[in-house]
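Quick one - inputs below.
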Amino acid sequence: EVQLVESGGVVVQPGGSLRLSCAAAGFTFDDYAMHWVRRVPGKGLEWVSLISWDGGNTYYADSVKGRFTISRDDSKNALFLQMNSLRVEDTALYFCAKDKGPVTDGIDHWGQGIQVTVAS
Amino acid sequence: QTVVTQEPSLTVSPGGTVTLTCASSTGAVTSSHFPNWFQQKPGQAPRTLIYSTSNKLSWTPARFSGSFLGDKAALIVSGVQPEDEAEYYCLLHYGGVWVFGGGTQLTV
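Output:
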């Protein structure tokens, strides 16, 4: 059974930094691309970032480009999202998600999400 | 900036059929956009229903299907059940970057 468990969510001040982690289990982690997706309160889902199976390709939404960095540690079956220069509008429930394929084919499994709050 | 558009809300009677659509501001939606469809209920994580236009996951109920309708991607729900009341999101691929639609609130 695929399991994705996010951690690292806290309350942080605007301009601050935060690192989210996602522990993966139940599948061969280094065979698949991985995503981060967020849901802003009162709004819909927003795709944030993608990393390919080998970490060689990364992609970002314009809203986070230059501030967020996605990475992975295949030895630990872990996905990360380094979030810098945080803004109030980054407040959201962040989901880790597994891609259907090694490069990108769409999302098949989701974590339960972790809350990030940016407030002074 | 690419915009993906869905109907904000739809209402259907139990047992009926409803079609949700997903349009791209860049033009016609094609298989190269790998349309994905998700269901999200309050307090729950999203659940994937369809990937790459029409492919189902093992847990996708048979009444859900994906296709194209004109220049849009479509999610068809045939024989709607009360438990299908939820928000539905499409997701399209643009050369590595993905964009969600604004979501459709389906009321049964």
